[in-house]
Amino acid sequence: MRSVFSAGLLDGFIDSSFDPFDFYIGVSAGAYNLTAYLNRSPGTSLCIFEQFATNRKFINFWRFLRGGHLIDLDWLESYAFDNQRIAPHTVCRSGKPL
Fold first, then answer.
1. Is the N or the C terminus of the chain less surrounded, counting Cβ atoms within 10 Å?
2. Would you call 35 helix, strand, or coil by DSSP?
3. CB of 48 within 8 A of CB of 22?
C-alpha cells in the first residue's frame, strides 16, 4: 500500500503533462503505477489499490491459514487489466525504453 503515494504523484504528472524521463522502471505495485502512467490513465492505480487490493479474492487470511497464498497476484493482474482497461501493449509503444 506504500505505492498509493507514487500513484498520486504519477497522476499529478499526467495532469501536468510532465514526462521528462528517458526510461522507466517499475517493480511490484510500482509496475501497475507505471503502466497507468504510460497509458495516461489518472486514477487507475488508486482504484486498483482501493477496490481490488482490498478484495477477498486478492487477500485472504483464511486461504493463507489453510496453507494457500495470502495474496493472489494472478487474480489481481487479470481483474485489474480487465476492469480498468489497462493496456500493457500500449506501454511498449511509448517510444521510451522500459
1. N
2. helix
3. no
For 86, the domain range is: 3-94
Query: What residues contact residue 84 under an 8 Å CB cut-off, 6+ apart?
Result: 36, 41, 44, 47, 48
Per-residue model confidence as pLDDT tens digits over 26-39: 888 888 888 889 88
CA–CA separation, 34 and 11 (whole Å): 10
Look up the pTM and report it: 0.73
Q: Note the Cα 84 to chain centre separation in Å.
A: 10
Identify which of 18, 93, 4 has the alpha carbon closest to the alpha carbon of residue 54: 4
Domain count, the chain: 1
So what's the pLDDT on residue 16? Answer: 96
Residues sharing a CB contact under 8 Å with residue 78, sequence separation 6 or more, in sequence order: none
Which one, of 7, 54, 53, lies nearest residue 30 by Cα? Answer: 7
